[in-house]
Amino acid sequence: MRRVQSNAPTRRERGTRATRRQVCRGLAGLAFAAVVLAAAPAPAQTLNELRAQGAVGEGYDGFARVRTPAPGAQAAVDQVNARRREIYAKRAAEQKVSPADVGRVYSRQIFEKAPPGTWFLQESGQWARK
Q1: Could you read off the pLDDT of 1-49 as tens digits, one per residue?
Q2: How far is the CA of 92 from the CAs of 78, 79, 103, 119, in angstroms?
Q3: pTM for the whole thing?
Q4: End-to-end CA distance of the chain, in Å?
Q5: Is 122 helix (H, G, I), strand (E, B) or coil?
Q6: Distance (Å, whole) CA 1 – CA 68
Q7: Which residues contact 71 (CB under 8 A, 6 or more apart)?
């Protein structure tokens, strides 16, 4: 039997091509990740740092609020408020009161412990500095 020569790649060549494709895809993925990380905002600041900048303040209801846009401010406020909601709900269930009542009590404690210069949102909707 006579073997016909073909221009088709051998099994070994196909494996090498597949490996090259995988390496190229991996490198492209790393390059994309580097671009995304470079464009990502700086690590989130703490609530105290944001309060000191005046970007975040405290509300009369015991929840933090964003006063002025700042990188990471909304994420920090959301995270803090989620924890506070849990605490207020737990205390409210224990004391058989509403979470809003618990939040108001905690807001007084937050005010007392906050450093001078912290902004507070009053029920009137006006911001006041401690």
Answers
A1: 556 566 666 666 665 555 566 554 544 444 443 433 333 334 457 888 9
A2: 21, 20, 9, 26
A3: 0.64
A4: 97
A5: coil
A6: 83
A7: 41, 42, 45
**Which residues are 58's β-sheet partners?**
64, 120
Contact yes or no for 92/106 (Cβ under 8 A): no
From residue 35, how far is each of 11, 29, 52, 85, 95 by CA, in Å? 36, 10, 31, 36, 51
How far apart CA 106 and CA 100 sit, in angstroms, is 10
Residue with token string 């000191």 = 52
Question: How many whole angstroms separate alpha carbon 73 and alpha carbon 67?
Answer: 9
Q: Report the distance separating Cα 54 and Cα 68, nearest Å.
A: 7
